[in-house]
Amino acid sequence: MEYKFSDRVQSLKPSAIREIFKYAADPTVVSLSAGNPSPDAFPAKEIAEISSRLLSENPIAALQYSVTEGYTPLRNFLTDYMKKKHNVGSTDDDILITSGAQQIMDLASKSILNEGDVVICENPSFIGSLNTFRSYNARLVGVPVESDGINIEKLEEALKNEKRAKFIYTIPNFQNPSGVTMSLQKRKALYELAKKYQVLVIEDNPYGDLRFSGEFLPCIKSLDDEGIVIYSGSFSKVISPGMRVGYAIAPKEIIQKMVVCKQGQDVHTNIWSQLVCHEFLTKYDFDAHLERLREIYKKKANFAMDLLDKHLAPKITYQRIDGGLFIWCDLPEHVDTGKFCMDAVRNKVCVVPGTAFMANETDVTHSFRINFSTPTDEQLQRGIEILGQMAKDL
Amino acid sequence: MEYKFSDRVQSLKPSAIREIFKYAADPTVVSLSAGNPSPDAFPAKEIAEISSRLLSENPIAALQYSVTEGYTPLRNFLTDYMKKKHNVGSTDDDILITSGAQQIMDLASKSILNEGDVVICENPSFIGSLNTFRSYNARLVGVPVESDGINIEKLEEALKNEKRAKFIYTIPNFQNPSGVTMSLQKRKALYELAKKYQVLVIEDNPYGDLRFSGEFLPCIKSLDDEGIVIYSGSFSKVISPGMRVGYAIAPKEIIQKMVVCKQGQDVHTNIWSQLVCHEFLTKYDFDAHLERLREIYKKKANFAMDLLDKHLAPKITYQRIDGGLFIWCDLPEHVDTGKFCMDAVRNKVCVVPGTAFMANETDVTHSFRINFSTPTDEQLQRGIEILGQMAKDL
């Protein structure tokens, strides 16, 4: 039989970085290409305790069907917590528990995008989200990221030109892949532009709690007095990604549509995981846990940045980061990034070429992404030393 | 801000049965409207044991990011198991672990359906799947279900007329909601027609292991020598629905597209749940567990059918079932089904009007669905007695 696929998936190709990731599976290759939390960062003991309690005291609650909107006590807790801690959410908003933040991108896209609609995104941006937008046949319009966040003039230009723009997708804190944090001024400017052009904002904030230096900056959603921001939160980096628990805080009307789509997508999010998150947030010291994570990542990030300073400078440069899991390294302009990354993998270190994160295949970048949370210190050292040797030869 | 939603969700309305379900939440109302496994049917002790072992021996494996395709040992086990036990799957097929079988409907739809394409389904059929197809703006064409399954002549008529038919959606065993099991002859005829018209089949089999009487019948997928059947399996009815673990066995090319869509939808299925299912399937006596479930449901189904015989005959009739969780009751033709179900809920028993399960809102039905797996025996007795009183007054 000859299979006929939908128009929307016919153009989706296995991504170019897959080829490189194949090498990353080789145990002799140091992988700096992942985005996994550090194995030290899991509250494994606490999760084991909670799970054991749940499954002995009231197993059916953890194993039976549940409601699409999410476990009500978890929704209520998060609504209060996000309001008090971040001024995120209003009485016009509602909250939906999702199967990871990735599902928020899918449900928002499904609810809002028609084929050919435009998503304005930072360039570079998180490939997972970009691929979701692409899977609904959206057209991506990339706006350059500067050292303090998205270029506001070019954002306005895009909003002016793109009549079919439906939302602006942004990761304001420790952006994946660039590591950049958007300044307060730019957060306000982005919000005002979204309001002026009546375009929704998806604020994706998986790393917000992982700030280990610099000053806390308010979420764009905390400025939202008009109901134009869909806030995307996640427990993947602060509790466990394998559990797949995220949450969207957004205007009620939008959440309603997302709930209908989620009903048809997975009925509800794994309820055991929702119960575990709720217990961990309410019966343990979550703030102390976050503090511990910040210490872990601060140490690892500084270790990585010291190695970069020592081995990669001056030919390969990077911008220091204040949080998150990624560092964005810039090659000299004459270097072919794709070739450099392929050479790196042959030299037994795997990094992700910047092209993977661009809104359009033809967008030029001279950067690559490294991750410091997954590898051990020894692996980081070995990997960056190899890159350093390659830098010398450029 | 005035929200503009996508064309595909603009027409999706909260379903008509939601109004009735609101009453079902009232604790004084006996709900025969759910579809949950019986609380007795969970291997709760075993899951607690497995989980405790997993989370103490290798917690990171149960909590870290995993691969989109699913946990490899679980995929390998299921591939062998389904081949040996049901002759399901060939070397041209692949397997994908999903977040419940519901996600199979979404991923298959997303991969295959363009807006306006046709899905041919049994009429009535499972509302959850129908709504997923609708959410991709598919047009549903319903083919009547008879006592031995779909009407084959009308199926061929539909295949002949509907040039945009992309797949036939069928639940051959103990269909939800009709309780009907498709005969072997009709399974073969359906497969031959699908082949003749080169239309894919989605075979949804959540209840197959819950046969408590009659003879086992082979899956349609076991006939599939041409790669036209997408088999949908689920652990929701035999281990735990709250875990959200299902699996699709389908031609490799189709699975590849579904994997790309899943990557953008939830990255992967909760990995703790996948590990738990794998351990339960491989280290415990799964067959003995299924035997225990069949005993539970046989007892409950016979109890319910005895009550129906006693209280509802002769005005309300039904077809005896050999498995599954549902019984389909037929009202006299002069009775308004919607009104009857609303009256029932006012009398403190909640059943689902057949209209909820029809391919098109205007399709006529004189039936309602009752579920016997969720209520206690006392609730079943009380609920059916109330319906019996109403039957007398018809």
What would you note in describing this structure?
- The structure is a homodimer of 394-residue chains.
- Chain A has 394 residues and is of the alpha/beta class.
- Chain A has 2 domains: 7-43 and 288-392, Aspartate Aminotransferase, domain 1 (Alpha-Beta Complex); 65-283, Type I PLP-dependent aspartate aminotransferase-like (Major domain) (Aspartate Aminotransferase, domain 2), CATH 3.40.640.
- Chain A is built from 14 helices and 14 strands.
- The first copy, chain A, has helices at 7-10, 17-24, 44-57, 59-63, 72-86, 101-112, 127-135, 152-161, 184-197, 252-266, 271-283, 286-311, 337-346, 377-392, and strands at 30-31, 93-98, 118-123, 139-146, 149-150, 165-170, 200-204, 229-234, 246-251, 317-318, 326-330, 349-350, 352-353, 367-371.
- The N and C termini of chain A lie far apart (51 Å).
- At the A-B interface, helix 1, helix 3, helix 4, helix 6 and helix 7 of A face helix 1, helix 3, helix 4, helix 6 and helix 7 of B.
- The H/E string of chain A reads HHEHHHEHEHEEHEHEEEHHHEEHEEEH
Number of strands of chain A: 14
Oligomer: homodimer
Helix content of chain A: 40-55%
CATH topology of the largest domain in chain A: Aspartate Aminotransferase, domain 2
How much strand of chain A?
15-25%
CATH architecture of the largest domain in chain A: 3-Layer(aba) Sandwich
Strand order of the largest sheet of chain A: 2-9-8-7-6-3-4-5
Based on secondary structure, the structural category of chain A is: alpha/beta
